[in-house]
Amino acid sequence: MEIGTGKSYAKIILIGEHAVVYGEPAIALPVKSIGLSARVAPLPDGRQEVTSAFFTGDLNAGQLTNFAGIAMLIRRLLVFFDASKQGFHLTITSALPSERGMGSSAATAVAVVRAFYDAFQTPLTRTALLNWADISEKALHGNPSGLDAATASAEKPQWFVRGKSLRSIMMPRNGVLLIADTGIAGQTKVAVDLVAQKLKQAPKVYRPLITDIGTAVRQAALALAQDDIITLGQLLNRDQSDLAALGVSSPELDRLINVAIDHGAYGAKLTGSGMGGCMIALAAEDQAPTIIQALKAANAVKVWEYHFETK
Ligand code: MEV
User: Fold this and answer.
1) What is the separation of C-alpha 127 from the centre of its chain, rounded to a whole number of angstroms?
2) Which of 40, 201, 208, 279 gives a 20 to 30 Å CA spacing to 178?
3) Which residues have C-beta atoms less than 6 Å from ligand 1?
4) What's the predicted TM-score (pTM) here?
5) Nearest-CA neighbor of 110 among 144, 83, 82?
6) Residue 262's CB: how many other CB atoms inside 10 A?
7) How many angstroms separate the alpha carbon of residue 2 from the centre of ligand 1?
8) pLDDT digits (tens, 9 = 90+) for 169-226
């Protein structure tokens, strides 16, 4: 084993979360200005330790919920490399807030897998990377679509259909996406389980919402192809009302979403699993400063600006 490194990015789901779990498409963006890196270095005395912004400890003693999936992933990686007794220190350095819908668990898995493959000097395909990330994502969320890891490992915005399609998609030539954090933790497993429960209990009520989200995502792809940011904004609003009807919005998210719309955003919605976490607002460049100020005044704990890459 050599020293190995790996990186990944925060992800923002532009449109299609939750429905993506049930086979509908989604569009998501890697946010390269918010990154995560992993560095693994061999230890001669056999200790296996992980330190990071989210969890610290001995690989075999990790009990925190977030840590369990990553610990399992690392154990399986070591078996794969025939190095179960190998001592190492893994450091994870992250600019991503945890449990805010920005994909911190998937980004951690992606960077960790890349770091171990680098340490064992083994080429890694994208498919293998996503299969590995699925191990810890499953442990944490139960039924992950794979969208988070696919986006955290990408360099460009992605069109994603579970198990079927993963490709880059063009973004608008102008406009800006504002990302605002409610400061409230939102756990993906809780939100995904809630939607599953509702679909089971009242499929006639909730299934059409899933289908409508899928339709909105397909229309959003068309709006993107036509560089029609106004229609895109309207589709984000439609997606938000479907997500709210599914029960995964929250008063804090609704408040920030309404503030963004009231201050001129084309559209706004929660991003990620919801029930807390972050919202996004699509806005004209010259409107952005007013909206940012209003979001901060409405108690957003942090606001990021995401400028679309057009190449
Ligand atoms: C979570 O970031 C996105 C969800 O659609 C779950 C998933 O795709 O696995 C809510």
Assistant:
1) 18
2) 208
3) 17-18, 20-21, 101, 103, 141, 144-145, 147-148, 188, 192, 272-273
4) 0.95
5) 144
6) 12
7) 34
8) 999 988 999 999 999 988 899 999 999 999 999 999 999 999 999 999 999 999 999 9
